[in-house]
Amino acid sequence: MTLAKLLRRLQDLVANLVAALETMLLFPALFRDPFRTRPGPFHSAYWRRRSLDSLADEVDRLFTAPLTPPNMCAMSDQMRAQLSAALQSSQINMLPSYTRTLPTGAETGTFLALDVGGSTLRVSLVHLAGQGTMAIRHVASTPIDEEVKLLEGTRFFDWMASHIDTMLAEVDAEDGRGPVPLSVGLSWSFPLEQTSHNTGLLIHMGKGFMCSTGTVGQELGQLITEACRRRNLSVAVDAIVNDGSATLLSRAYVDPTTRMSLILGTGTNMAIHYPVDCIGRAKFGDRPPAWFEGAPHVIVNTEMSMFGGAVLPLTRWDEILNRTHLRPDYQPLEYMITGRYLGEIVRLVIVEAVETAHLFRGELPHSMRDAYSFDTSLLAAIEADPSPQLTISAALLQKEHPGTHAPRPEDMRFLRRVCQTVSRRAAGYLATAIHSMWSLHNDADAEAESPADTVPGKAPKQVTVIEREGNPRSLSIACDGSVINKYPGFRDHCQAYLDQLTHETAASRESLDPSPSLIHLDPAPESAILGAAVAVAIAVSEQP
Ligand code: GLC
């Protein structure tokens, strides 16, 4: 190598070193390893200690700054634009189901309902008695732990079949063993490309599930019937619905005016009953022309979790979560508001607080090093703790994540503030997303009422404006899921944000009644299994 070349190499080396040092000084967080327990002497945090209060203030500022009503309205408008665009062309969200008919409440029968949720499998027998009344006759719930989530391909369906087998054996040893296959309704809490009311092709699943590995594009009903056949069980999957759609159906059985539903548990989603004419034709796949004739509306599985990217601001902890996720950017809203992620966001704040603000005396409990090790149920317990020094939740924390020292009251006060901040932001972002869906719904109503429909020679659109009592824009949303229905105060906070949002909208549009509660969140417990049973009842009643 010539001397000139050697000098050029040395120059490059020095330039690279200077650039690296510059980046380290400007963006120390990029070089912070979230899995360390204590800061080392080369760690910027080692030299920059701060108080827990000042970190809690910063967390509060970063998480709640976007939650002013005008800003939330602006974000809702941007999300509505994303929803509208996806309604025309997306293949992974705003998915029209095959369910056009809502139940009348008169459907009857006893059905086997399966609910594959993000953290529980439920196998149950549901009895629909007509007149809008229904009852769960028998239910077997099994947690889906991390090991099961990691089962790939057909192994997951074999696991499911074993639980169907056990439950049926408990009820009646003959069920599913006779010549006539047992009719099953399935509520599926994952995206699915539906190909008929009882078939659908698997899409990547999310929520840490690996069962779509090697099975993407395969038919879900068939995967289940074949797994059952391997156990000598004869079942026919007669209806498949997303859990959001199941919630809508279960509530509509009782209240036929229901048009929207919400899930917020391990994951989040909304289903809407929406005019077929307002959805891009390409999204319906290969349906026979006759399908469209009797179908003014269809239930749309919005896969709402996938919206909000580049709209809802992220904090540095959200960025770490997204960057280290199996599928970065796949479900932006979900990563900030659901049961699977709230605990992880708080854990990432804890890791920083241990390093920089001497939380837990600067020692991260060993068990908290792993991603997703801080369960959202702990956040709920900390927020709900009635003891003045938070001793109840401190004991729970020490039990689940033992450290050398028990958490101090100041540690617990810091944690409580962070949990409140993270859950309030989730309630605010959820309200923003619901508001965007409500606006989309109103757009469709407005289009139905628009004079363009009365242009001579143009066939009127087959859109029915939904009659609701009182204010025609008011809406009841059937909601289910552990976070929305059980996390302390969550639904009330979300409702309060919704009231602010609709008030803000009303103030800017004179045509709307300015009464604040235009959107109501109404709990619909057990909706996945009840809705799966309703879906089978509708399918069976529609069979020729
Ligand atoms: C996830 C899934 C979606 C499901 C929702 C609620 O976001 O993608 O299909 O409905 O969670 O369980």
Automatic annotation (TrEMBL):
Question: Biological process (GO) annotations?
Answer: glucose metabolic process; glycolytic process; intracellular glucose homeostasis; mannose metabolic process
Which GO CC terms are listed, alphabetically?
cytosol; mitochondrion
Q: What class of enzyme is it?
A: transferase
TM segment ranges = 12-31
Gene3D superfamilies associated with the record: 3.30.420.40, 3.40.367.20
A Gene Ontology molecular-function term?
fructokinase activity
Record key words, sorted: ATP-binding, Glycolysis, Kinase, Membrane, Nucleotide-binding, Transferase, Transmembrane, Transmembrane helix
Q: What is its EC number?
A: 2.7.1.-
Annotated Hexokinase N-terminal domain ranges read 71-253
Q: Which residues form the Hexokinase C-terminal domain?
A: 259-537
Origin: domain of life: Eukaryota
Q: Which family does it belong to?
A: Belongs to the hexokinase family.
Question: What's the protein name?
Answer: Phosphotransferase
